[in-house]
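Researcher: I need the complex structure. Ligand is zinc ion. Inputs:
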Amino acid sequence: MKDRIIPYGILVDMPEGFKKIRKKLLRSVRSKLEGVNIKRVNEFSRSIALLPGVVRVFEDADLPKIRSILDPMNLLRGAFSQSENGMYIPEIDVSLVRRNSEMEETNGPFSTECVMIHERVHNSSACPYYTVLNNALPYEMYRSRSGLCLPQNEAVSSLGPWGYFFEEGTAELCASLYRKTYREETQRKKILRELQRPEEWTEESLIQFGEQDKSRYFLPVKYLLSGPDGPVVSVSSFAGFGLELLCIKDPSLWEALILGRRKLSSLRKIPKIVNGISPGLYGQLARYGYTDDEFIDGLRRIIVTVFGGKIAVNSSCEILF
Ligand SMILES: [Zn+2]
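Model: Output:
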C-alpha cells in the first residue's frame, strides 16, 4: 500500500517503512512475562481509562535482536545502554520495557509492572499524524505529537523542549498510583526503614530530600522504589508529583491529562486549567527539558507559586487538603 500524504507533508497513517519495522519487531520479540501480574496491569490501565497500546517486555538477552531491527533507523536513540528500563518509540507506536534483574531482585516483577504502567501511558496517545520531510529511504519523518509533548516537532524544537513535564509527569503519576494500590506493606516498610522514617508512614507520606533551599524537594513514598543500594526515584517522579499538586488545586486537571491524550477538546483544557491555577504557569512548565534538574525546578516552581512555598502536612507527613 502507498503512503497517504495530505498537504504540508502530513501523513495520517503510519508510514509503510515504519509499519514494516514494527511488524518485524513484534514478530521477533515476544514479551517475557513470567511472574508479571499482567491481569492486574491491564485492570489498572482500564481503571484509569488508558487506551490500550502495544508494550513488549524483554530480557537483556533480547537486546541484540532489538538493536538489529531498530538501530538502522536510530529508533532506540541509544536507549538501554545504561540504566533505562523503558522507552516509548513514537514512530512505530510501541513501548519497550526491560526486565531489570537488579530491580526485580529487591521488588520482584512488581518493579517491571510499574515501568509497564509508565510506558503504557506514553503509548495511549491517539494522535496518528506523521510529519514527512523525506518519504523515501532513508526516511525522514517524525510523530509531531506524542501524548502531551512535541518530542520531534521541528518548528517547536527551535524554541527548545515542549511538554515533557506534562507527558512524563502524567506517566509517572499513574505509575505512582499503581505502586500505592498494589505495593506490599513489607516493601513500603523496607523503604521507610532505609530512609530512617517511621514504618507506620503511608504511601502518601512526604519524604524530604536535599539539605539547602536550592536542592530541597519532597516526594511521597509512592514515587519511590526499592533499589539494590536503597530507595530510588525516576527523573519523571518530580514532574509526576508536580502534576499531582496541581490536580489537588484543580481536580479537573486529572481528566484533562488522561483524555487530552486522545481528545483535542480535553488537550486544550490543560493550558486553561493550569493557567487558571497560576497565570502563565502552563508555558513555564511546558518549556522544561527532560532532566532531573529541570523537573525538580518545575516541582519547586509549583510549590512556591501555587502553595506559597509551604505544604501543610499531618503527623505522618501526609498532605493536608
Ligand atoms: Zn517516560
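Model: Summary of the prediction. The radius of gyration is 20 Å.
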